[in-house]
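To close the section, here is one more complete example, presented without commentary so you can practise reading it yourself. The ligand is flavin-adenine dinucleotide.
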Amino acid sequence: MLLSSFLACAAIEPGTPAADPDSHVIVVGAGAAGLTAARALHDAGVSVEVIEARDRIGGRTWTAGVGPAAVDLGASWVHGTEENPMADFADAHGLAYIPDETRWKTLYDETVGKALGDAEWTVADDAYDAFEAALPDLQESLGQTTVSVARDQWITDEGLTGQEARLARHAIDQWMVELEYGGPVDTTGLRYFWDEEDLAGGDQFPVGGYGGWIEAIAAGLDVSLDHPVTSITYDADDGVEVVANGETFEGTHVIVTVPVGVLRAGSIDFNPELSTDRLSALDRLDTGNLEKVALVWDEAWWDGSLEFIAAGNTGAFPEFFDMTELAGAPTMLALYGGRFARDAQADWTDTQIVDAALAVLATAYDRSIPTPTHTAVTHWTSDPYTLGGYVYLPPGATPDDIDALARPEGEVLLFAGEGTDSTYYGNVHAAVLSGLREAHRLGVDRFNIGGWESW
Ligand SMILES: Cc1cc2nc3c(=O)[nH]c(=O)nc-3n(C[C@H](O)[C@H](O)[C@H](O)COP(=O)(O)OP(=O)(O)OC[C@H]3O[C@@H](n4cnc5c(N)ncnc54)[C@H](O)[C@@H]3O)c2cc1C
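Output:
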């Protein structure tokens, strides 16, 4: 316990659990949500400790060294800077970010076997805008059917065929669904699709990666790494007992921030069992899939970033970002999601994934590709401490299900994490907001941390 920190108790409202000097809050998970909650409580004078399964902090933010390159293998972008507590924290702590000014140099259509020009980019952009505009009517008329039905129906209704249809499908499937939500297009619910809020300010990249930002949030916290939590016993009178790696941690409250995929898998045994409301919400929700392949060379042999429309719109490696400037070494970062990510992650080795990504580059640039000096392949889909990219709504699920995950179970078991924020789920700022929300719930009325004073 960090008893000295009780000196700062003024920020806590009397009569709340956190105002009790005997309170000790256990936070499960050292991702953005858990670290935010812990830091907000700690700096308000509450005794808090964080228990983390992995040998590192950050969760789905992970700035890794891939040879000489520093690459974000989890979250890369700050999606909006206005009303974003992550950006506010960065501003207050001198953590820099730069606008995403990706130069899309090549749009390659595998079906016709050539790179396309500005006219075709415009067709794809227009399809994106037109489908977005058509969504309210489609949602009204089709309700809880799937996006794929609506997408196919819309393409037919618009009379798009051939390359126009391929471009429209790519724009909808990749830009709006699979690289955005991660869920396969055929299992993504239409009714609430594209409904969540966007923050103003544009997409930015944290300079040096998210890692430095996460380290800054974690400053001063007591974090036990390599401690996968296997059971949590909770009782309003007796407090909580959290078992991890053979050790039992006792506290007055616990905030569980593990991903929705981990909760859905039942990896943690809760005693008493979680409420039916939460279990049925977990049943309706799902986690999408978003994966990355980082490819690093001694010298850049390409120019700009690549958009790739695989034959049959399979979603195979649709985007390669030129990350050279940010990574500090010549680096391409391939993103892929949805059905293709599920299948590739289930069936392919890392070598096969890298080779398939290199084959796409060879096709698109019509040249032999030098062997990368270093590579990294992510496995968020199968990683036992993530089990998916982030939460999305299949048909039948609603934002109320996400709200159900945000509610505490009784007085001492609380939840945070991106998948508990129905306004911004799937984002780092959703995770941060959920951490601040739970610190408020435990009675911290005002945060005395740079950037979070007004949150
Ligand atoms: C590939 C990818 C790209 C993304 N890109 C972006 C982006 O560009 N911008 C953006 O805003 N968002 C992005 N996201 C989403 C963003 O990364 C997440 O929304 C956010 O980081 C989630 O934070 P969290 O704290 O809720 O969960 P996590 O970061 O997953 O933290 C949960 C923690 O719990 C730990 N844990 C799990 N099980 C246990 C257990 N049994 N015991 C103890 N600890 C456990 C985990 O190890 C983890 O550290 C991306 C996600 C992925 C996967």
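Once you have examined the tokens, check your reading against these statements. Residues 31 and 58 are 4 Å apart (CA to CA). The longest helix spans residues 118-142.
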